[in-house]
Amino acid sequence: MIKSFIKIAYRNLLRSKGFSAINISGLAIGMASAMLILLWVQDEFSYDNFYPNKERLVVAWNRDRWDNEIKCWNSTPKILGPTVKKDFPEVEKETRVNWGDNLLMTVGEKRLTIHGTCVDPDFLTMFGFPAIYGNVNTALNDPSSIVLTEKLALKLFGNNNVVGKVIKVDNKSNYVVSAVMKDLPGNSRFGDYEFLLPWAFMKANGNDDSTWGNNSTINYILLRQNTNLEAVNKKISDITIKHEGPTGTTHVFLYPLGKMRLYGEFKNGIPSGGRIETVRVFAIIAILILLIACINFMNLSTARSEKRAKEVGIRKVAGALKQSLIGQFLAESVMIALIAGVLALGLVAISLPAFNTLTYKKISVDYGNIYFWLSFTGFIIFTGVLAGSYPAFFLSSFKPVSVLKGAFKKAHALVTPRKVLVVIQFTVAIVLIIGTVIIEQQIKYAQERENGYNRDNLVYVFMQGDIEKNYEVIKNDLLSQGIATAISKTSSPITQSWSNTWGYEWKGKPANDKTIINDFCSDGNLVKTTGMTIVQGRDIDLKKYPGDSTSAILNEACVKAMGFKNPLGQVIKNGADYQIVGVVKDFIIESPYDPIRPIVIRGPKGWFNVIHIKLNGNTTTARNLAAMEKVFKHYNPEYPFEYHFTDKEYEQKFDDEKLTGTLAALFGGLTILIACLGLFGLAAYMAENRIKEIGVRKVLGASVAHITGLLSKDFLKLIIISFVIASPFAWYLMNKWLKGYDYHTPVNWWVFALAGVAAIAIALLTISFQAIKAAVANPVKSLRTE
Predict the structure, then answer these.
(1) For a surface tag, which of 82, 415, 514, 727 has the fewest beta carbons within 10 Å of its beta carbon?
(2) H or E, element range at 705
C-alpha cells in the first residue's frame, strides 16, 4: 500500500509541475527559515547551560534600594568570593573573574595583543573545561602559570603541545604554560577569552583589594550537592553589611548561572525576564513562517480539489475507506515535505555562514549526531502532517455519487477555509512589515538623539606599556606635528562607563540619598577634545589653573541630582575634596535608549586608562593615523599600535536593536515571499478555471483592465481584511516592545498606512501577472470547444 501511495504521489507531482514547484519551493523556504531560527533559539537556550555542574553554579548579585526602587547588579566586591568559601560550608568552590583584559603576549619575536581574564584556581574544575594538555586541577595554582586555549597556542607556538613553554605577559613578567584547554565554546560567557591568568596577576598589578564597598568583579560560586539555594540566600544576605559596618545597606543574593542569559533583568528586585522575550518572539516567528508555508500547501491542494474529486469518487466506489484516503493524502504531503526538507537543509547549509555573521554566533549543524537526524525526521513528518491534514480530510470527505454525477461544485460561500487561510497569511505578513518599520524608527530615533559631544575624527588609545610614562612627549609630538588638535587623558572611553558610585557627598545631601553617579576622570581639555558644550564655567586646564588637580565638572543631570542652584565653586567629596569649575550639557556615555545619569568628571588627581585624540580635520584620516602610528611606535615600541574610533564604538550601542530589526525584516520578507507564492498559485488556478468565462466576457467587449480587476478584487478584499485584523494586533505588540525603552519613538499612524499600501501593492503585483495573462489570451482558443 505504501508503495502505491508513493507511486500516486509521484504521478501527481509530475502531472502538475507548476503547482508542485510552488508547493515544494514554498515549503522549502519556510522550513529553511524555521530551521535557522530554531537553531538560533536552541543556541540561546544552551548558553551557559552545558557545564557539568550547571545545576549548582550560581552568581553573586547585589541588591539595594535607591531612587525609591530596589536595584540589582552582579558586580560585587573582590573579597566576597574567598570570604563565602571560608565562612559558608554550603560553598564548595568559588572563582572571581575580572571583566577581561587585552594583554601583550610575547614569544620570541612574535607579539600579539590577546583578550583573556584573571581567575581563581577553581575556575577550570568548577565549569568543567577540559584540558588537552596539562592538569586542570593544578593548572592555576602557581602565580606564574598561564593557561592557553588551543587557538592561542597555535598562534603563538604553531602547535598545541606547549606545556612548560614561557610567555612574556604585558612586557613585564614571564609566565609558564601550565595547561592548554579546548577552545571555549561560543555559547559560553567566557567564549572570547583566549588565556587564563591566576588572580595573583591582579595583585601584582595593584588591581586587587579587600574593600567591601568596591563592587568591581563577578563572583561565581559552586554550591555543594543538595544545597537549598533559598536557605543559603537567607544566610548570605547580610554579609556585606556585616563587613562594611553601620553605613552598609547592600544585600547579597545568589542567582543561578543558567538563568543569567535569558532571565537576567530585575524589576524592583524581582526577576522580570530579559533576553527570553526576544527568544520567544523569534520562536513564534519560526512557527508562523512554517505555518504560512503549510497554509500555501493547504490552499493549493484544496484549490485543485476538482481535479482530484473523480479520483476520490472512483476509489470510494471501489471500496476505499475514508481512513485509507486520508492516509494516501497525508503520505503525499509527507513526501512533498521530504523533498522540501532536503532542499531546506541545503539552503541552511549555504546560508548558515552568513547567518552566523549577521547574528554574531558560531552555530553549526552536527550532521554526525543521530539526534539531529531524528529531530530532522520528526520535523519533516510534523510539517508534512500539518500541511496535509486539512487537504486530506477535505478531499476524503467528497461524496462519490455527487462527484461521479459531475454535481461537485466548489464552495462560493462568503467565508471559506481557503479565504481564512489567506487572511491568516497576510495578517502575519502585515504585522511583520509594521514591526520592521517601527524597529527601524526606534533605532533611527535613538541615533538622532543629541549625544552631547562630537564623534567626528575622535579616536582613543588604551594606555599600555610605556604610553603612560611617555604621555607628555607623545601628546606634544601629536600636537606639534599637526596630527591632533586636542588631547585628553581619561579613565575610560567616552562611550563607556567603567565606574559609578553613590559615595559622593555634598552640602545639603539627604542622609538616605543613594544617587548613582558615573565617575569619570580627565587630565584636562576634555571639552575641547570631545566637543562637549559648556553650560556654565569652564574646562579643566592645569596649565592655566594649577589648582585644577582637584577640580570637577558636572553634567546637567548631576547638578539637578545634587540640587545645586549655583554649582560653580561648590565642593563635593569622594575620598578628596573637589571644587566644581564647570557644567557641561548632558552627554550619552551609556545606552542611548536610557535617561542620562549624573556624571562627575574629576580632574587630574583621578586614575587614567585611555587617551582621547581629536584628529586634525584638515588632513586625511589615513595620513593622520599613519603619522600617529609612528609616534606611538617610537615611544612604545614593544606594543602594536591599536586605536578605536568613537563613532564606530557609539554605533555598537545599537547592535542588539539592529540585529532584531534585520532578522525581523529578513524573515518578514521571506514570509511575504512564501505568501505571494501561494497567492500566485491560487491566481493561476483561478484564471485557469475561469478561462471560458473570460473568453465570453472578451467576446462581449470586456476590456483587459476590467477582466484584470474582476480577477483581482476577491483577493484584494482578503488583503484589506488582513490589514484590519493586523493593525490593532501590531499596535499592541509594538507598544509593549517600545515600553522596554525609556527613550523611544512614538507609534505613528502612517506606519500602518504604509504597511497596508505595501501589502496591497505586493498582492496586486503577484496577482496581476496571472490576471493580465488570462485577460489578454485569445478567446478563440478557450471557446473553440463550445
Answers:
(1) 415
(2) helix 704-738
- Residues 34, 289 contacting (CB under 8 angstroms): yes
Closest CA to 4 of 299, 304, 318: 318
Sequence-distant (≥ 6) Cβ neighbours of residue 421 within 8 angstroms: 295, 298, 299
Q: Average pLDDT of 690-715?
A: 70
- DSSP secondary structure, 741-780, as one string: -SS-----HHHHHHHHHHHHHHHHHHHHHHHHHHHTS-HH
CA distance 15 to 302: 16
What Rg, from alpha-carbon coordinates, does the chain have?
34
Joined together, the cell numbers standing for residue 243 give 563587613
Q: Which of 192, 113, 180 is nearest to 146 (CA)?
A: 180
- DSSP sequence for 598-650: PEEEE-TTS---EEEEEE-TTS-HHHHHHHHHHHHHHH-TTS----EEHHHHH
| Distance, CA of 476 to CA of 328 (rounded, Å) | 84
Question: Distance between CA atoms of 304 and 301, rounded to whole angstroms?
Answer: 5
Residue 572 CA to residue 575 CA, distance in Å, equals 10
Cell matching residue 485: 588638535
Match 480577477 to its residue by C-alpha cell.
Answer: 711
pLDDT of 129 > 80? The answer is yes
Nearest to 138 by CA among 149, 148, 124, 128: 124
Identify whether the C-beta of residue 311 lies closer than 8 Å to the C-beta of residue 404.
Answer: no
Q: Could you tell me the CA-to-CA distances from 694 to 10, 344, 770 in Å, in that order?
A: 33, 38, 13
Structure pTM? 0.82
DSSP secondary structure letter of residue 112: E
The pairing of strands 551-555 and 577-584 is parallel
Q: What Cα–Cα distance (Å) separates residue 17 from each residue in 3, 13, 14, 307?
A: 21, 6, 5, 14
Tell me the C-alpha distance between 128 and 149, whole Å. 14
Instruction: Judge contact between 25 and 296, C-beta under 8 A.
Output: no
SS3 state at 725:
helix
- Is residue 258 within 8 A of residue 48, CB to CB? The reply is yes
* C-alpha to C-alpha distance for 611 and 466, rounded to whole angstroms: 13
Q: For 311, how many CA atoms within 13 A lie in the half-sphere containing its CB?
A: 14
% of residues, the chain, pLDDT over 90? 44
CA-nearest of 128, 125, 149, 126 to 137 is 125
Which three cell numbers, joined as nine digits, stand for 523? 587630565
The residue type of 41 is V
Query: How many other C-beta atoms lie within 10 A of the C-beta of residue 759?
Result: 24
Residue 704 has pLDDT above 80, yes or no: no
Environment class of 113 (CB within 10 Å of its CB; exposed 0-12, middle 13-18, buried 19+): middle
Report CA-CA distances (Å) from 786 to 30, 410, 425, 776: 43, 22, 38, 20
Residues paired with residue 519 on neighbouring β-strands, in sequence order? 600
Cβ neighbours for 400, distance < 8 A, ≥ 6 positions apart: 312, 313, 314, 316, 317
Q: Are 719 and 774 in contact (CB under 8 A)?
A: no
Per-residue pLDDT tens over the stretch 375-417: 889 888 888 888 777 776 766 665 665 555 555 555 455 566 6
Looking at residue 107, its amino acid is V
For the chain, what is the total number of helices (H) and then of strands (E)?
A: 24, 27
Sign (positive or negative) of CA dihedral 398, 400, 403, 409: negative
Indicate the range of 10-24, 50-64, 611-625, 635-649 predicted with least confidence. Answer: 10-24
pLDDT level of residue 3 (50, 70, 90 thresholds): low
Residues in the chain: 786
Distance CA(449)–CA(592), nearest Å, equals 7
CA-CA distance, 91 to 88, in Å (whole number)?
6
For residue 379, what is its C-alpha cell? 520535523
Asked if 145 contacts 121 with a C-beta cutoff of 8 angstroms, the reply is no
Residue 90 — φ and ψ, nearest 5°? -70, -15
